[in-house]
Amino acid sequence: MTEAPGAVVLLSGGLDSTTALAVARSRGYRSRALTFDYGQRHRHELAAAARVARALGATDHKVIAFDLRAFGGSALTAEIDVPRDRPAEEMARGIPITYVPARNTVFLSFALAWAETLGAADIFAGMNALDYSGYPDCRPEYLEAFEHMANLATKAGVEGACRFRIHTPLLRMTKAEIIRTGLELGVDYGLTHSCYDPAPDGRACGRCDACGLRLKGFREAGVKDPARYAGDATP
User: Fold this and answer.
1) 2, 116, 195, 229: most buried by Cβ count inside 10 Å?
2) Greatest alpha-carbon span in the chain
3) Is residue 217 assigned to a domain?
4) What is the pLDDT of residues 10-38, one digit of tens each?
5) Does residue 1 lie in a domain region?
6) Where in the sequence is the domain holding 126, given as residue range(s)?
7) By the 8 A CB rule, do 225 and 235 touch?
8) 76 CB-side CA count, 13 A
9) By CB neighbour count within 10 A (0-12 exposed, 13-18 middle, 19+ buried), where does 47 fall?
């Protein structure tokens, strides 16, 4: 029997990366999940990533620690207020203060290093260019450029041992389409965490960009969001 191919999956514990892991599993990959403790505002997404990795059968789950607070420059890594209550049309304009400089490049570089060590050609990530908050490192042209670089800058790529592929199956989906896809694949979104600025007990604020996009997606999908929300925020 031919062994299933291996893949490295970036897993934050949020809705999109969880769905990407489910897609990788549905395509027959033996998925290894990779999560980063990079100095983000809270630890809840790390706990969510561990729950998701177990639930979706990742064959390994590594958490890599480094501290982007040394550079700051983002509301997720510095003492900068997280924007709240922004309308969708405002989210679609410009690059928000929750953008972490070069974060996806750093994350994908770690994934590439692990994939090359494993002899795995495939990396999955949950980037989305349609229903997103203006992040430049979620754009198709960026991901194409990184894939090209990966095959130029690695021993495996240069010697022809494999050709690396960056899979972003959610790239052109709306949030509602992502949610429907995950539900069809058996994802329990109650395990996930999306909020940028949760309460100490992990309840989502319901007002940051991430919560706004998540709530909009569940409404449009016609499904109740199983996440816990603080205060007057309701799914």
Assistant:
1) 195
2) 57
3) yes
4) 999 999 999 999 999 999 999 999 999 99
5) no
6) 6-221
7) yes
8) 21
9) middle
